[in-house]
Every structure is written in structure tokens, then in C-alpha cells.
Design a protein that fits this description.
By secondary structure, the protein is α+β, with helices and mostly antiparallel strands. The protein has helices at residues 5-25, 42-58, 89-93, 164-167, 183-192, 210-218, 235-238, 253-262, and strands spanning 31-33, 39-41, 63-66, 80-87, 100-106, 112-119, 129-133, 140-141, 144-145, 157-160, 176-178, 198-201, 222-224, 248-251. Strand 5 and strand 6 (112-119) form a beta hairpin.
Length: 268
């Protein structure tokens, strides 16, 4: 069963509006901490409630996985919405610009196939960014088709998280590294900026990657572990809310191989 396009338009508008809400609240936000030490704000909770309620109303048979709400799993759902109300909450809570409202869609085979990403202070020659990719369609950036530019088969500049030193051996790596503070945006840079060819993300959760994973897959890129195995969204990730097992390498097959070779994980 296909998802109704008019209802998806309502979802897209709501995600874009959630980005504006996050922007407006950023100057007055108060940060607190969850039991695992990660940062949470009032905006995370507000946005999660608004978007999960809307998804339930429009697509009652769909599954929903949200970072900030534990909802009953629907293991036989044809579609699963994966929500991160604010990806990059830490930098968001400090007033920095690289954060995003992220909603991905997994199909019945748990392939990432849809994306709605609002980054109201992170733009490409604009003041803000909004990605819409309905399942089975081309991704749109601020309403326009995305044209992939640059050589995506070499490694000159990549993105990764700030805790990379804990996981990787840098002794063989000599390219540039950019750190933004949002995993969703780290992955998205691969299709937005010509000089960005790869990314490495460290153990986190399905909501931290699903939407951007859908976008990069559309352009022939993917996520794989250090042994070359492509990422799959397991029961543990979706229904038990557990992180993936180790670092993930993003890019074309050639770029992933090069990153695995030059930035291997440290031996434990």
C-alpha cells in the first residue's frame, strides 16, 4: 500500500514548521540531561508530541519510533516513521546552528525510503534547509531537485562526530575532517556539498541516521560496518531501541572501502 501523498504533504509541512519552532525557542532553551547523560530540551519534547500525534492521526496503521517517546511497537507495520525531534540537541542547546528535525520512513523490509529534514539555521546558499523525499520519489531541497556534484569516488574531505578519537586509528588518514554536531547533517553533506565525499558515524540509534540514510541511498551511497556489511535496521534497533553495533562508514562503495582502510576502528 502506498502512502497518501496529500497526507505526506501535511507531514512535510509539520516537520518544516517544527524546525521553525525549534529556531524560535533556541534563544530561551534550558538544557537538562537524560539518564544516559545525553542532553534534552523542552523543544525535543514539544516537537515529538506534535509530530507523533499527527502521524498517529494520519497513518494509524504505521509504526512510530521516536527518540523521546516509547510507543508500542508494530512489528507487522508496512511503514515505520523514525523521528528525532532535534538531532544535535547538544549543539542546539548551546545556541549553535547545526541541528535538524528529522523524520525518516522505513518500508516493510526496513529499507530507509523517505525523509523529511528541517534545518532552520543550516542552509546551502540560503538561511535554512528543508529536505522532502516521499517514498519512491526524488528528494527535494527547498522545493528543488538535488543535483549531485563533485567527485564522490575519492576521499578528500569527510564529516564525523566529535568522539571519533575514541573509536578510530588516525595514523593512516590525511584528508580533511568536518565536525558539525548533528549526525543527520553529517550524512546529508555527502549529497549537498561537492567536496564532501564520506562520513563516519559512531554507535547511536536508528533515529540519528534513518532520514539521511534514505537520501544518500537514493544517490547510490550507503552505510556499512568496518567488515563491509551494509547496515540493516534490526529488531534490536527498532523494537528494543538499541544502538547499532559499531562505527558506520558512509559513501559510495569505493569511498567506504577507502575509509575502512585508512580509518579502521581501534582494537579493543
Amino acid at each position: 500500500m502506498n502512502l497518501d501523498t496529500e497526507k505526506l504533504s501535511i507531514i512535510a509541512a509539520a516537520v518544516e514548521e517544527a524546525g521553525r519552532i525549534a529556531f524560535e525557542k533556541q534563544h530561551e532553551i534550558h538544557r537538562s540531561f537524560k539518564h544516559d547523560g545525553s542532553v534534552i530540551t523542552e523543544a525535543d519534547i514539544t516537537i515529538s508530541h506534535k509530530l507523533t500525534a499527527l502521524i498517529k492521526e494520519l497513518f494509524p496503521e504505521a509504526g512510530i519510533l521516536s527518540e523521546e517517546e516509547e510507543l508500542p511497537p508494530k512489528k507487522d507495520a508496512e511503514w515505520t516513521f523514525v523521528l528525532d525531534p532535534i538531532d544535535g540537541t547538544d549543539v542546539y542547546s548551546q545556541g549553535l546552528p547545526a541541528f535538524a528535525v528529522s523524520l525518516g520512513i522505513l518500508d516493510s523490509e526496513r529499507r530507509p525510503v523517505g525523509a523529511y529534514i528541517a534545518a532552520p539555521r543550516f542552509g546551502v546558499a540560503s538561511e535554512s534547509l528543508f529536505i522532502r523525499m516521499d517514498p519512491g520519489t526524488e528528494p527535494l531541497l527547498n522545493g528543488e531537485h538535488i543535483e549531485l556534484t563533485g567527485d564522490k569516488e575519492k576521499v578528500t574531505e569527510i564529516t564525523m562526530g566529535s568522539k571519533a578519537y575514541r573509536y578510530l586509528d588516525f595514523s593512516r588518514f590525511d584528508a580533511k575532517i568536518r565536525i558539525l554536531g548533528s549526525t543527520i547533517l553529517h550524512l546529508l553533506t555527502l549529497v549537498l556539498f561537492p567536496a564532501m565525499e564520506g562520513s563516519i558515524v559512531f554507535p547511536c540509534y536508528a533515529w540519528d541516521i534513518a532520514s539521511s540514510h534514505a537520501v544518500i541511498r537514493h544517490f547510490g551511497m550507503d552505510l556499512s560496518y568496518g567488515d563491509g556489511t551494509l547496515l540493516s535496521y534490526t529488531d534490536e534497533m527498532i523494537y528494543e531501541r538499541k544502538p547499532f553495533r559499531s562505527a558506520l562508514y558512509a559513501g559510495t562503495g569505493k569511498v567506504r572501502d577507502e575509509l575502512i582502510r585508512t580509518l579502521p576502528e581501534k582494537s579493543l
